[in-house]
Amino acid sequence: MPTPRDSETRQEWMKRCIPVLIDEGNEQDQAVAICANIWKNRNKMYSVKSNYRLKDIDGTVISAYVSVFNNIDTDGDMVMPGAFKKTIAERGPGASRVRIKHLWMHDPYNVIGVPEEMSEDNEGLLVRSRFGKDQFSQDKLQQHIDGLIDEFSIGYQVIQSEKVDGDAPYQKLMEIKLWEYSSVTWGANSLTRMIEGKSNIKDQLEVINERMNKLTSALRKLSLIHI
Fold this sequence. Notes:
Elements: H1 10-23, H2 28-40, E1 46-49, E2 53-58, E3 61-68, E4 77-79, H3 85-91, E5 101-104, E6 107-120, E7 124-131, H4 135-145, E8 151-164, E9 170-184, H5 201-226
Helix pairs in contact: 1-2
């Protein structure tokens, strides 16, 4: 997703930003709100980037590379190994307070999970993300299980970068402050596809049984009212 340019007005930014977020699967009102929020905080250089690989799904936890290293993306950026090291220590699962969240479509009002584990390896930033138990989060997990959603994007702030000149200049992102990672319909830079997805059948059966019990109880109450 683009970031606000120094020379553009708010109107020009909104006109450029909203279609991109709609293309990623957001509703019109969500896209407007997100773009407006990015403009409001533009001096903090909040950006989003799609550069990922969904690795596995196990029960209510997914494993995914939400950012991949050493790849020049469509924004002309290359995330470097070590870029997330500090932010993981300060804001990740091992911190005194976990500030990094798993969002739906970059919407801060729709938190669907939290990172259980987060680490860098040779490939990129690997996250084990546990989904919430609420119905909305579970529905989004099911979309991952069904293969309807298998792409990710990160929301971050650039702390340190290096420009590389040449015929195709690009920017190395040396240090990033990570705010969130999101499940999205279409990422801006899809590198690979989902490798494997599986669900915890026992947990799913328990949910189904619980719903059936609630439905049966409701029908019984309704029957008593009619009597």
